Amino acid sequence: MGPGGFALFETPIGACGIAWGPRGIVGVQLPEGGEGATRERMRRRFPGWVEAAEAPAEVGPAVAGIRALLAGEALDLAEIELDMEGVSEFHQRVYAIARRIPPGQTRSYGEIAAELGDKGLARAVGQALGLNPFAPVVPCHRVLGAGGKWGGFSAHGGAASKLRLLAIEGARPASESADLF
Q1: Catalytic residue selected from 140, 155, 165, 171
Q2: Which of 25, 35, 88, 112 has the fewest CB atoms in 10 Å of its CB?
Q3: How does pLDDT run across 30-66, given as a tens digit for each residue?
Q4: pTM score, two decimals?
């Protein structure tokens, strides 16, 4: 990948942003309430970076994958290379686990914490996902609270956006008794 930059691209749920650097994708921005708001959020996240009219060819597959996922295709986006420089080791471990959750399925913060070796890390898992710079490539929307509770979502629209992404994927909670929709 060439030098860093960012671009906006249309999806079925609105304008998303994507930023790239020499080692991969450095950030993705879900719609922020209109193209102008998404652009401004990208400018704040990546000050001094140049906006391109469109993403370069090597970023094209990531853009196509995100569009397809947001259109309801069951994609895991695992092939998208992410530049994790500056991301803590703990967050990287959480993001790796979240990336293995198949579209249409969910896990809980506690389940991810248990996979990390300490169920007591559930709150730290939630905090890591709240700082996820790669949504939906790192599908933090697929992670729920105990008993299928929605939990938080740091993207524009909060929990309503999380539920919208889960509905697009046809997700059902891991716990059959949980009421997501």
Answers
A1: 140
A2: 88
A3: 998 889 999 999 999 999 899 999 999 999 999 999 9
A4: 0.87
Q: Which residues contact 37 (CB under 8 A, 6 or more apart)?
A: 156
The reply to whether omega before 31 is within 30° of 0 (cis) is no
Axis-axis angle for helices 89-99, 122-130 (nearest 10): 90
As given in the structure block, the two tokens for residue 77 are: 């986006």
Q: What angle do CA 25, 91, 15 make, to 5 degrees?
A: 40
Rounded Cα distance between 127 and 131, Å, is 6
CA 27, CA 18: separation in Å to the nearest integer?
6
Q: What is the 3-state secondary structure (H, E, C) of the chain?
A: CCCCEEEEEEECCEEEEEEEECCEEEEEECCCCCHHHHHHHHHHHCCCCCECCCCCHHHHHHHHHHHHHHCCCCCCCCCCCECCCCCCHHHHHHHHHHHCCCCCCCEEHHHHHHHHCCHHHHHHHHHHHHCCCCCCCCCHHHEECHHHCCCCCCCCCHHHHHHHHHHHHCCCCCCCCCCCC
* Cα torsion angle, 3, 13, 66, 57, sign: negative
What's the rounded Cα separation, in Å, for the pair 98 and 156? 20
pLDDT tens digits for range 142-180: 998 776 656 665 665 566 677 778 888 888 654 433 444
